Amino acid sequence: MQEVKLYKIGDTTIQLIVPQISEEEREERWSEIERVAWMVWHSLTEEEKDRIAKKYCANKQV
Fold this sequence. Notes:
Blueprint lengths: L3 E6 L2 E6 L5 H21 L2 H14 L3
Antiparallel strand pairs: 1-2
């Protein structure tokens, strides 16, 4: 059974259908997301990295 979520924004209805994937496929997709995220992070300048780190570290109550 597929999980379906419906969202209505104004006169538009959006239907999201969650794909049925194996654990192996889920892990492959997550690995690709991590790889791309690290590529983006490494493309930033040190100043950009510092600004982002300060913004998100300041918001955390550890």
